[in-house]
Each structure stands twice: as C-alpha cells, then as structure tokens.
Amino acid sequence: MSSTDQPPANASTVAAPRPLAGVRVLDLSRVLAGPWAGQLLADYGAEVLKVERPGAGDDTRSWGPPWWGEGADRVAAYFICANRGKRSVTIDIASAEGIQQVRELARDADVLIENYKVGQLAKYGLDATSLQALNPRLIYCSITGYGQNGPLAHKAGYDFAIQAEGGLMSITGNKGEEPQKVGVAVTDLMTGVYATTAILAALHERAHTGKGCHIDAALFDVQVAMLANQGANQLIGHKTPTRMGNAHPNIVPYQVFPTRDGHMVLAVGNDGQFAKFCDACDHPEVSRDARFSTNPARVEHRATLVPLLTGWTLQRDTADWVQLLDRAGVPCSPILDLAQVMEHPHVAARGLRLQPGMDATPPMIANPMVMDGQRPVAELPPPALGAHQARWLHATP
After folding, report:
1. For position 394, what pLDDT does the model report?
2. Residues 323 and 363 both lie in one domain
3. What's the gap between Cα 355 and its chain centre?
4. How far from the centroid of its chain's Cα atoms is residue 388's Cα?
5. Which domain holds residue 173?
6. Euclidean distance between CA atoms 208 and 27, whole angstroms
7. pTM (2 decimals)?
C-alpha cells in the first residue's frame, strides 16, 4: 500500500467537495465504528490523524484474508474499508512520552474519537475532562458498547453481541429457526454514522459557543434506536415482534418470492401498486377481493395471499419479472451477489467504485453521498502503519 500523500484514483476530474477543510480530527479508535466515523469526516475534507499501537496498529490490519499488497506492506481488506483519507502515527499511550504526545496533538485538534473501555483513558489523563481542560474547544467523541453509565457500562462492546442483546437478532432469520445476525456489522456502522452526525452538530454548536462537548456514543443505544418501526410496534402494539424471514410485519406482499429460475424481491408499498401487480399478472380480480384490496386486509389474510402469489411468480424467470414489473411501476428486484453488485452498471454510472491507480492504491467503495453533483472523497488512500510519524511527531516510526 502506498504510504505517500497521493490521492486515490477517481473517475471525476472535478475537485471533490471539502466542507470540513480545516477541521483536524485525532482518531484514537480501532476496528470499525470509530474508524468509520473518522473516514466519513475525512471524506468531507477533515484532516484525520490515526493513532495506532506501535508494531501492530489497528487490529483490522491483520484481519485477512483477503489482503492488499505484499510482504511488510500487506494489509487486510477489512482495514482498507474504513480508513481512507487518514494519516497514521504510532504512539504507546501507556508510556509517559506517548501520553504527552497525545496531549500535544489534542491541544490542536477540533475532534477526538476514541473507543476505549469506560474509564481506561482516564488512567492516562487522556479522558474528556483532562483534554478539554487543555483545549476547551475539543469535541471529544467516546464510542463504547454500552455507554458511559448504566449497569452494563463496564462491558466491552462487540457488534455481534449487541445485535443479540439489542433485539436485532430476535427479528432476523426464519420463523422457528436460529436467530441470525445481519451479514455486515450494521450496529458498528450505524454507530459510526450516528457519531458523525453528532460531531457535525457539535461543530455547528461550537461555532456559536466556542466550546466543545463530550459525545457519549453507545452501540447498544444505537441498536435500540435503529429498531425503528419494529421498536414502535412493540411499544404501541404491545406484541413482541418475532422472526419472519424475509416477510414484513406491516406490509404484504413485501418479501422474497420464488421464480422459475431463482428468487426475487417483491416490495409492494401501497394498494395502487398491488392493483398494478395483479393487472400485470392478468389477475385484476384479486386486487378487488375484499380480503386483499387494502394493506390491512392483506396483512390479515397473509397466509392465504402469499401462496396464491407464489403460484404466479413461479411461472416466469426473475429477469422476466423484473422487466414486466418495472414497466408496470411495481417495485421488484433480483437478488444479486456481491460480485454482481460490483459489476452492476448502476454502480458504474453512479461512480461508487474508486478504481486503483498506478500507485498501488487499493480499490474502494466511495462515500454514498453526492454534493452538487460530486462525491466527497478523501484525498489520501488508507495509510501504511506509522507513515506520517516524522511529520507529526518529529520522530522516526
């Protein structure tokens, strides 16, 4: 991997938006939630300095295969996905020298992100209270499993465990079968996104007050919050949601259906779309049936309707259904694997793949936002361990 300050290759020749230019971020986090927040800020133009353990770095550097690079420069794809745009230094925060180095860096920082256990950085004088005494403008974001207080605050937080304890696994998977986690670490990722929004709000507030703040971002809190309609169903309906496979608790038909050559997603969101679906299937009478004419009725008669529709969907191939229902204005999609997604023409048209250049920059997925027609993309590739030591700490790696 390149350790130089060269921008990743991008299809666009227009400068990416940099709304956070001039904002300095000190990233003491590792693995995913914190690094994801730091990468988002880097994409928006912030200068992000990643502090890593000497010799080893972020745990995810070794979470392979697959790998990018060779020999000493080899790094896991996992690390690459969350560390674009950062500079790397190595500091032993348990040493007196390391503590002083972090304090000096924090003195000039606008934002600090950390995901140590509650109270761990206080032992070194690197907690929010200590560093904000040095720099009252510092926005200090602590990302933990369970937050800064409460009966579980002492526990380490892992996405998988919190998907379980925060309720997500109880509603993920097929009815009557083993609970399932989501295929990516969605709680970590959502915590990174929520933390980023809080940091941006704090930067806006600081422009008026001149003071930073301490952000308490907990994976558990985020997981409970992102239960969304399922959480509301519990609070208001007083009936505990359960695993329903690919079916939707509040909408029918809104699930996977088998086709002649595979499967497809049918996502009918309203009564008009259901009528169009029935018309396209040459069964307009079904949408006029009182059992199926409205969504509440379809939810009530789900067990009758779904087998009926399954008989229809098995009569055509997936591609034929997608073409037919697209024309009819009925939401329908094929189920693609990741290789198909990465080669999808819409992915190419939207510029979602950052292609490697001649400097060994790894391929990456772009920031999903577009601002004035341009994607915000950090100027630097993921850094080699300690690549910016001399510039930032006036010492060799």
Report:
1. 60
2. no
3. 21
4. 27
5. 24-226+348-393
6. 24
7. 0.91
